[in-house]
Automatic annotation (TrEMBL), chains A, B:
Belongs to the class-II aminoacyl-tRNA synthetase family. Type 1 subfamily. This is Aspartate--tRNA ligase. It is found in: Cytoplasm. The gene is aspS. The lineage of its organism: Bacteria, Pseudomonadati, Bacteroidota, Cytophagia, Cytophagales. Homodimer.
Length: 595, 595
């Protein structure tokens, strides 16, 4: 090694040692007769000292010629610092330099290599290799490293075998769009990159591997919304001879292990909620449970076959509520002081096209126990009192109410709830709240395509007690499917799988596959089910997202070493790019001119 | 869990416990009144017992209806076996069955799920999920799992950070053929799949990551020879502030750790040999050092500027040797008894087109100290005596000699050496011999293309003392490059990299890149070298191959869960395959009809 120690290693106990350090020039302070260099590497910073008169003149001149980010090898003696720096572990010592080799010079970086940089996103992406030098970005990737190591440690301890599944697989029409790879050896044919190793992990269960996992790259050719990447990483897992309860326990164990080992956080036992309850209480299948503010219904949706559904709003002459399928709200604690201006602004916020509510009704529960609402024309204080009881509101609270079509109103109120949570500081990224959401619907109807789609994927099993509904009322069939939600983000999801050929065939048929299509696409899996397939199920975690949540960040991008931008482009290497005509010829493909 | 124990778990100490086991029917033995079922899972085999009269009649009938590979859940009591089976860990007990659930039926598998199967390669590949049930295949993948875990353990302990590099990158013309991926969002442009993460790991060094590793999929669109896969896995590593010696020590440490942890083998210190010596002594840059049999030169190549080069063959009237550039042989110990027929067969073997030698000369060193050769017409016993001294041969040995063009003769003799090693049983797959091969040439000349190619890759640094030869004698420039060879297979290779923009540009120019091409392809790397690149180097191991060597197998295929065949096809899922016109339209590409 060109060094004897790293820049994060030396302490007072090393005083008088002759050492060699290597690293980058973080800063130079030139006080005329004395010159200090902060030398940086991955492990820390160590201060180098050069003193005029005591240091050889050529050496002193060399040191003066250095610039930021120069790569050095410094030889010298460890001495105790006169003025110690308690903020860094090496702050008690410095190196009295006796020799200095410039291993490489550096041009002035296009942005500051500091925790707070002056570089914009585009510049940082183009010079990603410099951005990665900054502590916050490097720490994110170190966190990711620890997450991966600890995941493997846990899985290994639970007898899971890591198996690599292929990357060059087969395109299937179900689900998101595939990236494809033309095959030169089989002209006119294509591989596809996996959106997940789903079928392969199921085959491993048929093979008797019993417990499989993999931290694996997956690919989706989707129009990239903010914070989506065409290639992403999953913790992919599957187990045999299990029921849903076993999966939930096993992977609750993983998450709690990760929180403990990586963050030192004791995560509480993960509560459970059905999909139906999550939609009813939060208007979302991934509620942020760091704060309460559950939905309260003033006029509930009439459920088939029931009569005494709550309705505290109808018949008072307020047409908006009278005609609404659902009147639902949240109670914002301590917000009764909101001014008219604030409430107008909140109303404007929720009426933006991104949320799309028609309006917002409020009820102030004043500290003096009076109630004041924006619908006082229609509802007496007595009516409002009943509402406030329903809301479990207290003096000082503010009730915010939305109405209309049930699904839309819930979706809008979910947005409002999250916004209020943010405004009230209830969504601290360093507080962690998790939730299992269970009993997802098996299918959802695509209005545009006029057919059923698998909500999870076509291999998810229906709940046995709901199988009889598959023909009569497919939308009511619940799946053995579950999501793990942390802080309002779905970090993982999975299901107990179908392991019976007939049921799998019936599922494909429901999804509009002809027998021939099902056989052509998934014949190998259905065949496998005939040779002794065990009951099995699994889960996959979005690893990039999980890391970002552990890192307390909103964006996954800085938890990926070399991410792509929203056009799927790596601006550093300038990819994708054109390829040569010779390559196209070999692959027997042509590009079609675009206007 | 549907089970209380696995099929490999129960012992005498568990007798009288009520247990639930799940697994596959390995065998059924029906002795009329008594029926035994071997129930198998990943963890082992447990014997189930059903006795007529003692077992309920329906249960007995159910058991009789079972077939091989049915999936069962068996409930019962652990009892001591009357006739114990010392060959399996559960052999002292059996389960007296009280309930039996058929979890899934199984058709008769197309081949036997036994260690020695009757299934041919094609059938086993098509039903890979059944092949994976067989112990030898499953054990290979378990070995691979342990190799991966132990690799990460070692690397983690040495402060290496695991960083995932992108899979969708940029096509580059240098090296092997890329797989490409059309970009829908950037029509007419393509990503490429990485042949290795080379440039990214170098950028990570520029970023100061100091020590990087990754177990990562790589891709090469080559015409597949036997035992090549279009996608393969590397242990990819890079370190900063190192010299070659540091890399050799670090990764010798990895290999020795793996041998110890996975195989319980104490690997000897890895010897080192230059490329030049390896070619001279073994005719190969990856010699199998499990056995000796080094080459002996009877007439050496005249080295420039030297005069007293050995020649024990010229001037005796044997034109073949007189006109040969090189006369070289091996000494096969104890083979003097080879019959004329055996020697003729060996001569035929070496004259096959695959080896291509013109002939084979032999000298028998008989037990009675006489020497007998196929060139007695030209060489006296005294001449032969001198040869045998040169060969360090002993009575009973057989010297086998080849001549001709030096490179060709060495290549042919290498084949003969390996063949003799095999015939003499000197290549035991459970014996391990490793070697570092050092000082590879930087460049090799492509006669066809009439230009220089990088022997390793364009980022490999020349030895500083040879840089002056770059213009005058490029072929003589040695690289800071090294390979790790185990049992005659190159399992890893790497180099100290160029980290200076000018030298890198000079290298690209030597390789025939115009400045524009170099900038378009690798501009980002050359730019990075200007912002403070540290000295760095690394290595990559072929993980599939490493596993196969640890597993004592010749083929990598059974160390890959779902391999492709020699046409790059996955016959199980039938991939590659055609994709829909709609997909092609979206991607703005067309396939070109092939005749």
């Amino acid at each position: 090694m060109l060094r004897t120690h790293t820049c994060g290693e030396l302490r007072l106990t090393d005083v008088n040692k002759t050492v060699e350090l290597t690293g980058w020039v973080q800063t130079i302070r030139d006080k005329g007769g004395v010159l200090w260099i902060d030398l940086r590497d991955r492990y820390g910073i160590t201060q180098l000292l050069l003193e005029d008169g005591q240091t050889a003149p050529e050496l002193f001149a060399t040191a003066r010629s250095l610039g930021r980010e120069f790569v050095l090898k410094a030889t010298g003696t460890v001495i105790e610092r006169k003025s110690k720096n308690p903020n860094i572990p090496t702050g008690d010592i410095e190196i009295k330099v006796t020799a200095l080799d410039i291993l490489n010079a550096a041009k002035l970086p296009p942005f500051l290599i500091e925790d707070d940089t002056d570089g914009g996103d585009d510049l940082r992406m183009k010079y990603r290799y410099l951005d990665l030098r900054r502590n916050p970005v490097r720490r994110n990737l170190e966190l990711r490293h620890r997450m991966a190591q600890q995941t493997r440690l846990y899985m290994d301890g639970q007898d899971f075998i890591e198996v690599e599944t292929p990357v060059l697989i087969k395109s299937t029409p179900e689900g998101a769009r595939d990236f494809v790879v033309p095959s030169r050896m089989n002209p006119g044919e294509f591989y596809a990159l996996p959106q997940s190793p789903q079928t392969f992990k199921q085959l491993l269960m048929v093979s008797g591997f019993d417990r499989y996992y993999q931290i694996v790259k997956c690919f989706r050719d989707e129009d990239l919304r903010a914070d989506r990447q065409p290639e992403f990483t999953q913790i992919d897992c599957e187990m045999s001879f299990v029921e849903q309860e076993d999966i939930l326990n096993m992977f609750e164990g993983l998450i709690r292990h990760l929180f403990k080992a990586v963050k030192g956080v004791d995560l509480a036992e993960v509560p459970r909620m059905t999909y139906a309850d999550a939609m009813r209480l939060y208007g979302s299948d991934k509620p942020d449970t760091r704060f309460d503010m559950q939905f309260t219904e003033l006029k509930a949706v009439q459920r088939p076959g029931t009569f005494d559904t709550i309705d505290l709003t109808s018949g008072k002459g307020f047409g908006v509520f009278d005609s609404a399928e659902l009147v639902v709200g949240i109670n914002a604690p301590g917000c009764a002081h909101y001014t008219r201006k604030q409430l107008d602004e909140l109303t404007d916020w929720i009426k933006r096209p991104q949320v799309g509510a028609k309006g917002l009704i409020y009820v102030r529960y004043n500290e003096d126990n009076t109630l004041k609402s924006s619908v006082d024309k229609f509802y007496s204080e007595d009516d409002l009192k009943k509402w406030s009881v329903q809301f479990n509101a207290k003096p000082g609270d503010l009730m915010l109410i939305i109405s209309g079509d049930a699904n839309k109103a819930r979706k809008q109120l979910n947005e409002l709830r999250l916004e209020m949570g943010s405004r009230l500081g209830l969504r601290d990224p360093n507080v962690f709240s998790s939730l299992w959401v269970l009993d997802f619907p098996l299918l959802e109807y695509g209005e545009e395509e006029q057919r059923w789609f698998a909500m999870h994927h076509p291999f998810t099993s229906p709940k046995p007690e709901d199988i009889s509904l598959l023909n009569s009322d497919p939308g009511a069939v619940r799946a053995n499917a579950y999501d793990l939600v942390i802080n309002g983000t779905e970090v993982g999801g999975g299901s107990i799988r179908i392991f019976n050929r007939d049921l799998q065939a019936r599922m494909f048929s429901l999804l509009g596959f002809s027998d021939e299509e099902a056989k052509a696409q998934f014949g190998f899996l259905m065949d496998a089910f005939e040779y002794g397939a065990p009951p099995h199920g699994g889960i996959a975690f979005g690893f990039d997202r999980l890391c970002s949540i552990f890192g307390g960040a909103d964006s996954i991008r800085d938890f990926i070493a070399f991410p792509k931008n929203n056009s799927g482009r790596d601006v550093m290497i300038d990819s994708p790019s054109t390829i040569s005509q010779a390559q196209l010829n070999e692959l027997k493909i042509e590009t079609v001119a675009t206007k």
